[in-house]
Task: structure prediction
Amino acid sequence: MTGKALVEAEGLQKFFPLTRSVTDLVRHLPRRAIHAVDGVSLTVRARETVGLIGESGSGKTTLGWLISRLHEPTGGSLRFDGEDVLALRGNELRRWRRNVQVVFQDPVGSLDPRLKVWQIVGEPLRAQGELGKGEIRAHVKDLLPTVGLPPDCLDQFPHEFSGGGRQRLSLARALSVDPRLVVLDEPTSALDVAVQAQILNRLVELQKEREVAYLLITHNVAAVRYVADRVAVMYLGQAVEVGGVREVLEHPIHPYTKALLAAVPVADARRRRTRFKIGGDVPSLVNPAPGCRFAPRCPFVIDRCRVEDPLLREIPGAPGQLVACHRAEEVREIAPVSLLTTVDDRSTGAAASA
Ligand SMILES: Nc1ncnc2c1ncn2[C@@H]1O[C@H](COP(=O)(O)OP(=O)(O)O)[C@@H](O)[C@H]1O
Ligand SMILES: [Mg+2]
Result:
């Protein structure tokens, strides 16, 4: 079903420098930066969906922006269809942009309220600079029904649409230039459950029709299970586990993946009031210490974890599943619950480690 490598990111980094305080200057302290994405390698193949999951602040949006070349990376390489995307400048870069489009996290803030539907949806087409107004309007009119919107809403404004409708506009805008990859940043998290399902179904259908690949950023594991072929798990700016959706979601190997998946609220009525929380302190993203980012919270930590960065590597017996953990072979069979502090809403504070 899926094809050859479309996006090949290697060691991508994005650091956001912090302004130096007077104290920093006086003490000659080194420049500090938020390591939002710190050495992520990820492949997205043609026509596949890769889910990107991880807690808020783990760098998912920043990685999506790097892959779309909306951020200039601090380091690393990025190839698209074998081409070095980071070498593109000016007109070459502008033309390349049609290949990768983004549906942004916030369906309200990402649509200019002063623009009409045809201008919003047609914006990437206008930016390509090949079509005139009449052609753009005609193209948008054809496109609207494919995302489930009426073709006669060309001259309406975004505020006239529901949340779901606005997200359909964003989707139409992304698809307007026939991209090869769409980065979907939490595309349904602002929508109610019924609308979420409609949009996800439409995304799946559109992928088949248009042979487009998706990078689906979400904290909705159920959505990833439903639509993604592969999944990457991020923790504090790094990919800790990457692999097939079934393999990773059903047999997570990295201690963090196990904990993250166990922390997803359970639907089971008897267990509904029990949630799981990962214990320990989250280290800072500002000039992080060397070693595994999960080490301060990991129950399996050994000295090596605190000094040596674990690299993503294939684990024997788990083909295609890449895990960044020095102790992956030893911890893979350990059940996730043993990592966790159980928090029962009825008796908060009654923590127990199984
Ligand atoms: N433009 C920016 N300037 C400074 N810090 C940023 C910027 N964008 C993101 N960050 C920081 O980078 C980290 C990762 O953010 P983000 O990629 O938005 O994570 P996620 O999408 O997983 O929630 C966060 O600590 C965030 O505050
Ligand atoms: Mg985000």
